[in-house]
Amino acid sequence: MARKRRTGEVFSMSFLDCMSCGFGAVILFFMIINAQVKETTEDDPSDLMAETRMLEVEILEGRKNLVLAKNTIQELETERDTAEGRIIDDGTIFRLGQDDFMLCCADPCYDWFCLSAVGFDEVEITDISDEVAALAIQGPTSCALLKAMGFAGIEQCKPFQIMRFPWGGGEITVSRTGYTGDLGYELWLDPRDAEALWDALFTTGALYGIQPMGDESLEMARLEAGFLAPDVDFHGSLHTVERGHDHSPLELGLGWILNFKKPHFSGRATLLAQKESGNYRRLLKLDIEGNKPAENSILYADRKCATEVGYITSGMWSTVVKANIAYGLVEAKYFDGPIWAEIYHQKELRWLRKVARCTRVTKPFWSPERAKATPPADC
Length: 379
Known about the structure:
Blueprint: H1 13-41, H2 45-83, E1 91-97, E2 100-105, H3 110-116, E3 133-138, H4 142-148, E4 162-167, E5 170-175, E6 184-189, H5 194-204, H6 215-224, H7 268-277, E7 282-288, E8 298-300, E9 308-318, E10 323-330, E11 339-347, E12 350-361
């Protein structure tokens, strides 16, 4: 018996159900998207502005905290240097009264003094850099010049002593100090009177051969006198960027300023241990053969320049002592051995190399008697 073939209907009810569900899902999807877009567009713009302002405030606070953190790190680095007995500057302290002192230094040390004074209720520290003008009168006729200007009794002023004299409408403080190693004085006064003092010095000083002195002349004079220059012969705290690049007083030949009989001072334990070990580099005065300045040269333990032992910090040919003088920082284990300097110099536009023997010098290269005599011979 033959089966009757079943014919399908194009639009059956099942197909319509599927199509209806599909269209329904699509419509629902677009409705959800449209609702979200509408909700987003209907947000209050003031809320967005408030959030923006809050973010700006947070960014500003973050920047402030970053600056504070950076300053704190610098302060801690300075505290670390002093706690370990490292040099942060080189200056002169003047005692103006029973409990009144003035410090003259190369780098700003105000923050360090403020930190060190914490807990001392009776200590007051003031930065007077903008309130004081200073002029240095240096050379063999400096005393005679000041005496001719009316500074009576100036010839009795001893090295590092201070005297006061009336000047203009106020007072001028004169200290027998300087950075040349020669007879000389430094004058401290109100900045408003500085120009008049300059004019008076050059008017009276014409008979004494007075001349203005620049940085190069001062650099030559201080090296001949055996004085150190901050950020040349040693790094101050503001310019030391790596551990091991700072220096102690013992390394710089300033051990005479340390009094280990005192029960406490900054860095005492570290410096005492360093002194007892003897294992520290040293800044040496060197007389270098020849007449080619050795500034920035590398130092070696042998003429073949095989073993590096240090470097030159300052160097020049001195027309006063007629010698090739320099300061050199030498590692501890090579302190007593031979030292050679590898010098590069220019001749007729060509760079030439020379290896020169270095001889240690224990005293200042130049130290005239008039610098210490009281009264000076020509005053």
